[in-house]
Fold:
Amino acid sequence: MELFLQLIVTGVMLGSIFALVSLGWVLIYKCSGVLNLAMGELTMIGGYVCLAFYQKFVTIMPVNYAFVLALIGTIFIGLILGLLTERVFLRKMIGEPVLAVIMVTVGLSFFFKGLVFMIWDTDTQVFLPRIFSIEPIVIWGITVGAVYLWSFIAAMILMVIFICFFKYTRWGLSMQACADDEMAALSLGVSAKFVYALAWAIAFMAAGVGGTLLGNINGLNYSVSSLGLLVLPAVVLGGLNSVPGAIVGGITIGILQNLAGGYGEAYIPGSKEVAPFVFMVIFLLFKPYGLWGWERIERV
Amino acid sequence: MSYLPCGTYFESYADDQKWWRTNFIKSKMIVMVVLLAAVPYLVGSQWMSVFYTINYYILAALGVQLLIGYCGQITLGHAAFVAVGGYTSAMMVLFLPWPQFMVDAGLVYPISIVCAGFAAAIWSVLFGLPSARVKGFYLIMTTMAAQWITLRLVITQLSKIGGREQSFPLPPGVIKIGPWVIDSDEKIYYFSVILVLICLVAMGNLLRSKIGRAWIAIRDNDIAAETMGVNIIVYKLLAFFVAGFFAGIAGAFWISALFFVSPENYEWFYSLLWVGIILIGGVGSIQGIVFGSAFVVLVFKFLEMGVLGLSDVLMTSYPEWGWVTTKIIFFKESVFGLAIIFFLIYEPNGISYRYWQIKNYFNLWPFSYTGK
Structure:
């Protein structure tokens, strides 16, 4: 029972990182209709950029400040990269068939993967000196790694910031309008180009923070990008165009992965990686549009 | 289908649907077969592997083209089905107790190819089942799940058989078709050409039958197809079956070229690559598969040659820049990603569309009536 609770709690905390990255994914899909398969690489880039900043900053200031500053730097770089990516590659693809757009994001993922390995090499790198203590924290008898707890807190804070941004700022409202009905939004003077650029920038920022947190848990290497790809089952579970769905889906995937890792691994090795996908396929057989995805009503 | 030369017309549908509609097309095909047979004598032996890699990509992308280009079911997990084919064939050849006369007659490997086709086809139908209910990106995700689940299963379950770590080497002489032992690049090449020709003709014939018309109807609008009396679930699953069968054949062929099976030949990268191939070649065109495969393999080959040349120059002239050579392999991947992106941005209809335009230009010359 204790193991079970512990797995669940850690799963929720790991899942909150997935939820953060899925939020960025859903945003791109809602605003511009692009199905982004490069999300894993975006996550990885974020992690490596933050590591580079951290290694620079840690020589001149205390660890905590250095990490926070590095995180802010990552968000800033994510903003620039997101705007650039949208401008250079994706804007030309507006109105092209869905498959072509997907393949462009696949090309992006090859490009970014090559770029990251060109700059930082393929060896596993860790954040040194450690930012979070190895000592686990005990809450009500449940042992939780400090990394997980802080990741959870950071992800939650960022998610609240993003959601407030959508609800209360002018830019966020224009994004909502564009996602709801692009034609109507355009006729009311919302700039679609600006909204697309903003969506990509936010996705890059969210993925960057997610990658940093994932990198803190297991060290940074190529596996971070396959963890980042887990946002795809997460968003499918929640329904493609639902922000709450993305969050719930992300947390579900986190819990599932942990439970499969804790219990299934003994019987079927490799079930940790497979469980989210198996669950997703079975789930889709019963709810073809995820939890809260829009059902497309088709007419001939 | 391109426009026919001026003055050529048909009086029956049977004539219009023929493989070789005019004598010119027929002679073109014969010249092509002769050329294919002569390739090993025309090019150096180091290019043989390029040619049979192209053929492998054609075989593998055939199923992807069928699903995406003709049936409208987007798949991003085709490498899984190729893996099933490859492993089935390898396992059958290595571990089944074949009677000696079959081994002597060289029947083992051909039988294993067919079995690999069926195994991959059934596996593919299993993951095609959700297509009865889900569409679009949700379907993409289920096929992606096929990739993860299959590869994980292969790595964790199969690779332990026989105590080997990751790969199963195939001892020389095992891959034997009738009296021929496949052991040299030329033989692999001829084998691949024969397989590709058989599969392309089979696919072409399927597409001009009732089944092919049903697939195309589903691609264009599945609800309309259903109201017209096409049983869309059966035909969608049939598309997955046939695509899986081609994938299985591709996988079974590739073990004869590699002489081993190992999971890293079936990474997700390859699934994406094959979708990229049909997009580059042209969606919904059989020639497109050939063009796309040739383009991708040649781009890789030239990048590799350029990279090797560059690293040679660097090593000899600028030793202090030697660290660049360790990064060059990633440079190759980056450039390949960019090549795909810019190809899609500037040539969205694929190579086969250009080919179609050029062919029509000559067919209709000097009285072009297409207006373009």
User: Anything to note?
Assistant: Chain B has 15 helices and four strands. Chain B touches chain A through 49 residues (CB under 8 Å). The longest helix of chain B spans residues 286-317.
